[in-house]
Write a structure and sequence with these properties.
Helix content is about 30%, strand content about 25%. It contains ten helices and 14 strands. It has a six-stranded mixed β-sheet with strand order 5-6-7-3-8-9, sandwiched between helices. It has a five-stranded antiparallel β-sheet with strand order 13-10-12-11-14, with helices on one face. Helix 2 packs across helix 3 (about 110-115). Bound molecules: adenosine-5'-triphosphate. Belongs to the ABC transporter superfamily. This is ABC transporter ATP-binding protein. Keywords: ATP-binding, Nucleotide-binding, Transport.
Length: about 300
């Protein structure tokens, strides 16, 4: 079966709340697709509809061309992590997975394989009630992989992960995609998906507001911009905006400049005796690219309101 998810025209209301308002996108094999958007955008509801846990009022969700309920051995087609907290606290990780494997007619050997894949082998016999949220996420991911599915769908898998866990999960998601699987990962923090997602579906108010490759998004957001690192951001902005550049503050000590080549930026700052530690071609972070996409960036444009740069 092909590793794809196709969602078309999903609509769903909970009473007066419109959770899904025509959600439409597809997830392709061999890529990590980030599913992003603010709280309440409809990400979890979409995933629940894909898995047949919620019924849509309208529209269709297909996994490898079939609705979830039409899959004969669902866990071998799609693995999912929706709520890592939903565990029996008295059961060990191994016990939990054995129970799941048994209910699906899978061999116990596969349980040890997935425990190893997610790095839980040494904690496998401890009770899950004592697990940190990060360990529960790993256990949830192990459960998702039990059936060696072509499609993997994880809702907020970075939640509760420590920095080491975040690095691990990024690499892990990349390896799942490299094996040809279709991987859909939701997050409301863009930084989590940095260097991980190949493609991005951005949702807002129950529908898709952007469906784009990450490389294209970052390329477009980077533009022909120059990044300046400086301990004097206000002076830097004043001088460069005064000379006609479009400038934007993207961090405490980083300014981006459009319209000027790096050597012109250096000459202007030197000429005005403004200190800086680095001037380089700018590569937008995923978070920055997303902010631009959703037009949240704070921008200072040259002639518009010079007083803001003072
Ligand atoms: N079972 C439910 N009953 C009532 N309203 C619900 C239910 N599930 C979701 N909603 C509402 O539907 C909307 C979409 O919620 P959803 O959880 O899908 O968003 P989300 O993008 O996953 O958000 P988050 O990032 O917070 O998980 C929200 O307004 C939410 O309050």
């Amino acid at each position: 079966m092909e590793a794809t998810i196709e969602v078309s025209g999903l609509r769903k209301r909970f009473g007066r709340t419109v959770a899904l308002d025509g959600m439409t996108f597809s997830v392709r094999p061999g890529l990590v697709t980030g599913f992003v958007g603010p709280n309440g955008a409809g990400k979890s509801t979409t995933m629940r509809v894909i898995l047949g846990l919620d019924a849509a009022d309208e529209g269709a969700a297909l996994i490898g061309g079939k609705p979830y309920r039409g899959l004969r051995h669902p866990l071998s087609h799609v693995g999912s992590l929706l709520d890592a907290a939903a565990l029996h606290p008295g059961r060990s990780a191994r016990g939990h997975l054995l129970w799941l494997a048994h209910s699906q007619g899978m061999a116990a050997r596969r349980v040890d394989e997935v425990l190893d894949l997610v790095g839980l082998t040494s904690a496998a016999r401890r009770k899950a009630g004592g697990y940190s949220l990060g360990m529960r996420q790993r256990l949830g991911i192990a459960a998702a992989l039990l059936g060696d599915p072509a499609t993997v769908m994880l809702d907020e898998p970075f939640n509760g992960m420590d920095p080491e866990g975040i690095v691990w999960i990024r690499g892990f998601l990349r390896s799942l995609a490299a094996q040809g699987r279709a991987v859909l990962v939701s997050s409301h923090l863009m930084s989590e998906l940095q260097d991980t997602a190949d493609h991005l579906i951005a949702a807002g108010r129950g529908k898709v507001i952007a469906d784009t490759s990450v490389a294209g998004l970052i390329g477009a957001a980077s533009g022909n911009r120059v990044a300046v690192r400086t301990a004097a951001p206000q002076d830097t902005m004043r001088v460069l905006a005064g000379a006609g550049a479009t400038v934007a503050a993207i961090g405490r000590d980083t300014i981006t400049v459009s319209g000027f080549a790096p050597d012109r930026v250096v000459a202007l700052l030197n000429g005005a005796a403004v200190p800086f530690s680095e001037v380089s071609a700018h590569r937008a972070s995923l978070e920055e690219a997303y902010m631009e996409l959703t037009r949240d960036a704070v921008e200072f444009r040259a002639p518009a309101s010079p007083e803001v740069t003072r």
